[in-house]
Inverse folding.
């Protein structure tokens, strides 16, 4: 693998263009050509005569304004030494929407719009596809069906899960919700699932797993005959092993007469469906209904306005309408389909992606000192 500078890696991660940085440096009165920046980025070589300390500091400030983390900036002007894959968490690999303290002061924003502090249902931004998903899940819960809800990171799965659980607990007292705790940061185990069921149903947990399973089946059947329903909800379903998924299918197939005694809903990233669509998992795949999280699309602009209005900030005092449209446009891309085929438009207008672009834009505006953001400014970010 070709050796890379840390600066080159960070530019790629943040989608930074060299010309953008050169213009930002020029605006600060620092002369640094695109050629010089290219040599620094690719070969880690500085010009013999330049204001190196000032240039380094302004490049760091610029990258911070575009969402660079402390990890990104550590050893920025040196060679990249990648961490082993096992040392990288999902949070390290994805950018988070972070408003800098100076950005909040500059725009007089008292609360961070990207921290999801939900106090009531009005705090959630729901579009028709979200409402439809929740209704489909409630129908599945009442019918003891088996469902997966899959979507990209930041597509709104956690929001849907919270609202779905809330509605089930508030409106359907006959349904007992069972949500296993993760035994570690990576996996929900079959043992964790069975212990969660025992905990919710008041079963004294036998030490022997076979005795435990027998007791769970007996209790579920007895409660079902008394009119109770049960719903098992598991988050981060993509981390489940195929063996655990098979055991969940067996649990779901438990019946009292002709009725199933428990419904199962798995929330996960697209890798979950990739896992269950293999030939070895065809029995599960043929029995599960998959609900896909959809991008916000044309609703993205209303979503952006909602994020600021709910914290008491008028977004139109900061952004023009065209600026919000331009930010929405940042979340679209094209996927090449090969020679002879048209490129496919890729809509990534998911909440997290929009939040990241909003944060980048606000941080950059505060860094430059621009209190009103228009379409032209967004296109430069």
């Amino acid at each position: 693998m070709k050796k890379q500078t840390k600066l080159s890696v960070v530019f790629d991660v943040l989608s930074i263009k060299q010309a953008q940085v050169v213009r930002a440096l020029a605006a600060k009165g620092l002369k640094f050509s695109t050629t010089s920046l290219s040599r620094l980025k690719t070969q880690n070589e500085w010009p013999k005569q330049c204001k190196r300390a000032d240039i380094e500091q302004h490049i760091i400030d610029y990258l911070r304004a575009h969402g660079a983390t402390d990890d990104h900036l550590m050893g920025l002007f040196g060679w990249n030494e990648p961490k082993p894959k096992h040392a990288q968490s999902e949070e390290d690999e994805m950018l988070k929407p972070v408003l800098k303290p100076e950005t909040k002061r500059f725009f007089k924003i008292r609360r961070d719009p990207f921290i999801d502090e939900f106090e009531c249902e009005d705090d959630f931004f729901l579009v028709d596809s979200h409402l439809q998903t929740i209704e489909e899940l409630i129908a599945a819960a009442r019918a003891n069906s088996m469902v997966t809800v899959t979507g990209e990171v930041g597509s709104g799965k956690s929001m849907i899960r919270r609202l779905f659980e809330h509605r089930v607990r508030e409106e359907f007292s006959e349904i007992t919700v069972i949500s296993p705790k993760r035994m570690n940061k990576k996996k929900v185990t079959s043992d964790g699932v069975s212990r969660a069921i025992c905990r919710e149903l008041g079963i004294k947990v036998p030490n022997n797993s076979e005795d435990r399973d027998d007791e769970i089946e007996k209790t579920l059947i007895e409660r079902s005959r008394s009119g109770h329903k049960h719903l098992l909800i598991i988050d981060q379903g993509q981390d489940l092993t195929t063996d655990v998924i098979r055991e969940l299918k067996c649990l779901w197939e438990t019946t009292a007469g002709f009725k199933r005694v428990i419904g199962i809903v798995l929330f996960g990233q697209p890798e979950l469906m990739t896992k269950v669509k293999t030939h070895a998992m065809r029995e599960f795949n043929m029995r599960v209904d998959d609900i896909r999280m959809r991008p916000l699309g044309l609703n993205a602009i209303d979503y952006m306005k909602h994020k600021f209005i709910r914290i008491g900030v008028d977004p139109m005092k900061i952004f023009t309408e065209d600026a919000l449209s331009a930010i929405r446009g940042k979340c679209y891309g094209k996927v090449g389909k090969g020679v002879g085929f048209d490129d496919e438009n890729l809509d990534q207008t998911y909440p997290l992606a929009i939040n990241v672009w909003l944060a980048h834009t606000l941080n950059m505006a505060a860094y430059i000192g621009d209190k009103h953001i228009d379409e032209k400014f967004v296109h430069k970010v």
Notes: The CA atoms of residues 301 and 324 lie 6 Å apart. The longest strand covers residues 229-234. The two ends are 30 Å apart (CA to CA).
